[in-house]
Design goal:
Keywords: Cytoplasm, Lipid biosynthesis, Lipid metabolism, NAD, NADP, Nucleotide-binding, Oxidoreductase, Phospholipid biosynthesis, Phospholipid metabolism. InterPro entries: 6-PGluconate_DH-like_C_sf (IPR008927), 6PGD_dom2 (IPR013328), G3P_DH_NAD-dep (IPR006168), G3P_DH_NAD-dep_C (IPR006109), G3P_DH_NAD-dep_N (IPR011128), NAD(P)-bd_dom_sf (IPR036291). It is an enzyme of class 1 (oxidoreductase). With 331 residues, the chain is of the alpha/beta class. It folds into 2 domains: 173 residues, NAD(P)-binding Rossmann-like Domain (Rossmann fold, 3-Layer(aba) Sandwich), CATH 3.40.50.720; 135 residues, N-(1-d-carboxylethyl)-l-norvaline Dehydrogenase, domain 2. Helix content is 47%, strand content 13%. It contains 14 helices and 10 strands. The strands form 2 sheets. The chain has an 8-stranded mixed beta sheet, sandwiched between helices. The protein has a two-stranded antiparallel sheet with strand order 3-4. α4 links the parallel β7 and β8. α7 packs across α12 and α8 runs antiparallel to α10. It is globular and about 60 Å long. It binds 1,4-dihydronicotinamide adenine dinucleotide and 1,3-dihydroxyacetonephosphate (13P).
């Protein structure tokens, strides 16, 4: 990395930002953990706990919480860990603070709703020519924070930088693989959230384990088709940020996307089913479906999620629509 001696910066101290801060510290880095609220920063500095977003996890000593964005200027790399839809405003706020050479590692999973832009493209628009990377893969914040074994993928077009970043963030319990297929890695993370909502809905409606397995397999087929159309490499999607994250998110109520779908399946409305939590798949569904339509990619499960969220279909109508499509060859 250009200034390999600096600390790792983390922008966003929610569940994932806090877990990544601990992981980066465990990997031997000093960490500056930025959050927008000065009160929260003071509380984290005093109690060393983030009770609101990651209860029960103690911040390691090498982490300095702050609400001063300027502190990130000294960092050798900054991980952006705020919700996907805040990527543009955060990149704009960070742009005057960071050197053009400081890599920004995107850790959110989504597509910009208002423009349909992939998050890397948003950042490249704001910081043209500056290095951008994506970190994604099957990783619940609580697992990572508790030091349970986890593996993720970091992609950057600059292969040497991808390797350096992956090495810097890898520790005893977090293994970071590297790739250059930025598009594939970001598509895996963004699309699996939409599919996980469908999986949760299947569980919530009591449609059975067979339906869930079918949905994961057919959802993966959609993911692959979409990634191919947008320049992602199929091998990437068969890895951690694709199949790995799809399986994790579709099989656990720890996932907020799955739980949101579960509550939809149990009869809650799209407005109440999030219970105030961040549900990235709900924010990304319409953009994903619009991008798929633009390239003629068939994504019936993602379409069904979008139709349910927009109120056009009930869950039962969505199931009927999916089950009564014309019979076709599997691949
Ligand atoms: N929680 C998890 O297990 C994982 C989450 N992710 C991804 O990481 C991203 C963040 O997720 P979480 O940390 O879990 O969410 P969270 O809801 O726990 O935290 C979000 C954080 O962003 C901050 N924030 C919200 N809007 C902001 C804005 N406009 N400007 C600055 N800060 C703002 C909040 O104050 C909060 O600190 C999501 O895209 C999610 O998909 C990825 C892997 C694992
Ligand atoms: O991305 C995640 C795990 O890899 C977290 O999923 P949720 O956002 O659905 O909780």
């Amino acid at each position: 990395m250009p200034e390999a001696t600096g600390p790792i910066g983390i922008a966003g101290a929610g569940a994932w930002g806090t877990a990544l801060a601990n992981a980066a510290a465990m990997a031997g880095n000093d960490v500056i953990l930025w959050m927008r609220s000065p009160e929260q920063a003071a509380e984290l500095a005093g109690t060393r706990m983030n009770e609101r977003f990651l209860p029960g996890v103690r911040l390691l000593d090498r982490i300095s919480p702050t609400a001063d964005l300027g502190r990130l200027a000294s960092c050798c790399a900054v991980l952006l860990v705020t919700p996907a839809q805040t990527t543009r405003e955060m990149a704009e706020a960070l742009s005057p603070v960071l050197s053009r050479k400081t890599p920004l590692v995107l850790c959110a999973k989504g597509i910009e709703r208002t423009t349909g832009a992939f998050l890397c493209d948003v950042v490249e628009e704001v910081r043209p020519g500056a290095p951008v990377a994506v970190l994604s893969g099957p990783s619940f914040a609580h697992d990572v924070a508790r030091g349970l074994p986890t593996a993720v993928t970091l992609a950057c077009r600059d292969a040497a930088l991808a390797e350096d970043l992956a090495t810097a963030l890898s520790g005893p319990t977090l293994r970071v693989y590297h790739r250059t297929d930025v598009r594939g890695v970001e598509i895996g993370g963004a699309a699996k959230n939409v599919l996980a909502i469908a999986c949760g809905a299947v569980a919530g409606r009591g449609l059975g384990e067979s339906a869930k397995a079918a949905l994961i397999a057919r959802g993966f087929a959609e993911l692959l088709r979409f990634a191919r159309a947008y320049g992602g490499e199929p091998e990437t999607l068969m890895g951690l940020s694709g199949l790995g994250d799809l399986v994790l998110t579709c099989s656990s109520a720890q996932s907020r996307n799955f739980s949101f779908g579960l509550r939809l399946g149990q009869g809650a409305s799209a407005e109440t089913a999030s219970e105030g939590k961040l549900v990235e798949g709900a924010a990304t569904a319409s953009a994903l479906v619009a991008l798929a339509r633009a390239k003629g990619v068939d994504m019936p499960i993602a379409e069904a999620v979008e139709q349910i969220l927009s109120g056009a279909w009930t869950l039962d109508q969505a199931v009927d629509a999916l089950m009564n499509r014309p019979i076709k060859s599997e691949h």
